[in-house]
Amino acid sequence: MSQPTNGGFEHLSPSAMDILRKRAESLASESEADVQLDLMSLLLFRLADEWYAIRIEDVREIYNEYSVTPIPRVPDYILGVVNIRGEIVSVTHLATLMRIPQHPDHAPDAQQPSAIVASTDECVSALIVDEIGDIVEVASSELEPPLSVVDRGHADWVSGSVYLDGRLVGVIDLEKILRPIGENE
57, 61, 124, 184: which one has the fewest Cβ atoms less than 10 Å from its Cβ? Predict the structure, then answer.
Protein backbone atom coordinates (compact mmCIF):
# COMPACT_ATOMS: atom_id res chain seq x y z
CA MET A 1 0.00 0.00 0.00
CA SER A 2 1.44 3.37 -0.97
CA GLN A 3 1.63 6.44 1.27
CA PRO A 4 -0.56 9.46 0.41
CA THR A 5 1.38 12.20 -1.36
CA ASN A 6 -0.82 15.18 -0.42
CA GLY A 7 -1.25 14.51 3.29
CA GLY A 8 -4.48 12.59 2.78
CA PHE A 9 -6.04 15.23 0.51
CA GLU A 10 -5.61 13.30 -2.78
CA HIS A 11 -9.35 13.25 -3.29
CA LEU A 12 -9.45 17.08 -3.65
CA SER A 13 -9.29 18.77 -7.00
CA PRO A 14 -6.23 20.84 -7.91
CA SER A 15 -8.26 24.06 -7.47
CA ALA A 16 -9.34 22.98 -3.97
CA MET A 17 -5.72 22.16 -3.11
CA ASP A 18 -4.73 25.59 -4.40
CA ILE A 19 -7.37 27.23 -2.15
CA LEU A 20 -6.12 25.26 0.88
CA ARG A 21 -2.50 26.19 0.12
CA LYS A 22 -3.41 29.89 -0.20
CA ARG A 23 -5.37 29.74 3.07
CA ALA A 24 -2.41 28.13 4.85
CA GLU A 25 -0.11 30.86 3.52
CA SER A 26 -2.60 33.51 4.66
CA LEU A 27 -2.76 32.03 8.15
CA ALA A 28 1.04 31.92 8.31
CA SER A 29 1.29 35.59 7.27
CA GLU A 30 -1.37 36.54 9.87
CA SER A 31 0.86 34.98 12.54
CA GLU A 32 3.77 37.12 11.34
CA ALA A 33 1.51 40.19 11.42
CA ASP A 34 0.51 39.37 15.02
CA VAL A 35 4.18 39.43 16.00
CA GLN A 36 4.53 42.88 14.40
CA LEU A 37 1.53 44.14 16.40
CA ASP A 38 3.50 43.70 19.63
CA LEU A 39 4.54 47.36 19.54
CA MET A 40 5.44 49.73 22.31
CA SER A 41 5.18 53.49 22.11
CA LEU A 42 8.10 55.54 23.36
CA LEU A 43 8.52 59.26 24.00
CA LEU A 44 12.00 60.36 22.96
CA PHE A 45 13.92 63.02 24.87
CA ARG A 46 17.46 64.37 25.00
CA LEU A 47 19.79 64.76 27.96
CA ALA A 48 22.97 66.60 26.90
CA ASP A 49 24.07 64.80 23.70
CA GLU A 50 22.34 61.48 24.40
CA TRP A 51 18.83 60.40 23.42
CA TYR A 52 16.63 58.42 25.76
CA ALA A 53 13.04 57.23 25.78
CA ILE A 54 10.30 56.52 28.25
CA ARG A 55 7.31 54.25 27.67
CA ILE A 56 4.36 56.41 26.71
CA GLU A 57 2.03 54.58 29.10
CA ASP A 58 4.14 55.97 31.98
CA VAL A 59 3.79 59.57 30.76
CA ARG A 60 0.95 61.62 32.22
CA GLU A 61 1.74 64.87 30.42
CA ILE A 62 4.42 67.27 29.20
CA TYR A 63 4.70 70.32 31.41
CA ASN A 64 6.32 73.46 30.02
CA GLU A 65 5.35 76.30 32.34
CA TYR A 66 5.97 75.68 35.99
CA SER A 67 7.42 77.30 39.06
CA VAL A 68 9.56 75.07 41.26
CA THR A 69 9.38 75.54 45.02
CA PRO A 70 12.71 74.42 46.47
CA ILE A 71 12.69 72.10 49.46
CA PRO A 72 15.59 71.79 51.89
CA ARG A 73 17.71 68.75 52.67
CA VAL A 74 17.04 66.68 49.56
CA PRO A 75 19.54 65.25 47.06
CA ASP A 76 20.80 67.68 44.41
CA TYR A 77 18.79 65.96 41.67
CA ILE A 78 15.50 66.89 43.40
CA LEU A 79 14.93 70.51 42.42
CA GLY A 80 11.83 70.90 44.56
CA VAL A 81 8.11 70.52 44.00
CA VAL A 82 5.47 71.95 41.67
CA ASN A 83 1.73 72.25 42.00
CA ILE A 84 0.00 70.60 39.05
CA ARG A 85 -3.73 71.27 39.30
CA GLY A 86 -3.69 70.85 43.07
CA GLU A 87 -1.31 67.86 43.16
CA ILE A 88 2.14 68.44 44.67
CA VAL A 89 4.70 66.71 42.44
CA SER A 90 8.46 66.40 42.95
CA VAL A 91 10.75 67.77 40.25
CA THR A 92 13.67 65.51 39.31
CA HIS A 93 16.59 66.79 37.26
CA LEU A 94 17.18 63.59 35.32
CA ALA A 95 20.65 64.48 34.00
CA THR A 96 21.90 65.21 37.53
CA LEU A 97 20.45 61.95 38.86
CA MET A 98 22.07 59.99 36.03
CA ARG A 99 25.33 61.98 36.38
CA ILE A 100 25.25 63.20 32.79
CA PRO A 101 27.49 66.26 32.34
CA GLN A 102 25.61 69.32 31.12
CA HIS A 103 26.73 71.52 28.25
CA PRO A 104 28.88 74.46 29.36
CA ASP A 105 26.77 76.71 27.11
CA HIS A 106 23.61 75.82 29.06
CA ALA A 107 22.95 79.28 30.46
CA PRO A 108 20.83 79.61 33.58
CA ASP A 109 18.73 82.34 31.90
CA ALA A 110 17.94 80.08 28.94
CA GLN A 111 14.39 78.97 28.23
CA GLN A 112 12.90 76.81 30.96
CA PRO A 113 13.34 73.13 30.06
CA SER A 114 10.36 70.86 29.52
CA ALA A 115 9.27 68.40 32.15
CA ILE A 116 7.85 64.96 31.49
CA VAL A 117 5.35 64.18 34.24
CA ALA A 118 5.76 60.44 34.67
CA SER A 119 4.33 58.00 37.15
CA THR A 120 4.64 54.50 38.53
CA ASP A 121 2.37 52.80 41.05
CA GLU A 122 4.43 54.33 43.87
CA CYS A 123 5.44 57.77 42.68
CA VAL A 124 4.85 60.73 40.36
CA SER A 125 7.60 63.15 39.35
CA ALA A 126 8.22 65.85 36.79
CA LEU A 127 11.40 64.78 34.99
CA ILE A 128 13.41 67.74 33.66
CA VAL A 129 14.90 67.04 30.22
CA ASP A 130 16.82 69.14 27.70
CA GLU A 131 14.57 68.49 24.71
CA ILE A 132 11.39 66.58 23.96
CA GLY A 133 11.50 64.46 20.81
CA ASP A 134 8.90 62.47 18.92
CA ILE A 135 6.69 59.60 19.93
CA VAL A 136 7.78 56.45 18.11
CA GLU A 137 6.51 52.91 17.97
CA VAL A 138 8.96 50.03 18.03
CA ALA A 139 8.46 46.31 18.08
CA SER A 140 9.08 44.89 21.54
CA SER A 141 11.42 42.40 19.90
CA GLU A 142 13.71 45.30 18.88
CA LEU A 143 14.36 46.22 22.51
CA GLU A 144 17.84 45.00 23.41
CA PRO A 145 19.50 44.68 26.79
CA PRO A 146 20.97 47.97 27.94
CA LEU A 147 24.14 48.60 26.02
CA SER A 148 26.66 50.97 27.41
CA VAL A 149 25.40 53.98 25.48
CA VAL A 150 26.92 55.87 28.34
CA ASP A 151 29.23 54.94 31.17
CA ARG A 152 28.30 52.29 33.74
CA GLY A 153 26.75 54.86 36.08
CA HIS A 154 24.27 55.85 33.38
CA ALA A 155 23.53 52.26 32.38
CA ASP A 156 22.11 51.59 35.86
CA TRP A 157 19.14 53.81 34.97
CA VAL A 158 18.46 52.19 31.57
CA SER A 159 16.31 49.07 31.15
CA GLY A 160 17.12 48.50 27.50
CA SER A 161 18.16 50.12 24.26
CA VAL A 162 16.84 50.37 20.75
CA TYR A 163 18.29 51.65 17.46
CA LEU A 164 16.25 54.46 15.90
CA ASP A 165 17.34 56.27 12.76
CA GLY A 166 20.90 55.03 13.18
CA ARG A 167 21.30 56.14 16.77
CA LEU A 168 21.20 54.14 19.96
CA VAL A 169 18.46 55.25 22.35
CA GLY A 170 18.43 54.18 25.99
CA VAL A 171 15.02 53.27 27.41
CA ILE A 172 14.74 54.65 30.93
CA ASP A 173 13.95 52.27 33.79
CA LEU A 174 11.26 54.41 35.40
CA GLU A 175 10.84 52.05 38.35
CA LYS A 176 14.47 52.72 39.33
CA ILE A 177 14.29 56.45 38.59
CA LEU A 178 11.22 56.95 40.76
CA ARG A 179 12.25 54.82 43.72
CA PRO A 180 11.89 56.64 47.02
CA ILE A 181 14.96 58.69 48.03
CA GLY A 182 17.51 56.51 49.80
CA GLU A 183 16.74 53.38 47.83
CA ASN A 184 18.74 54.61 44.79
CA GLU A 185 22.03 55.04 46.61
Answer: 57
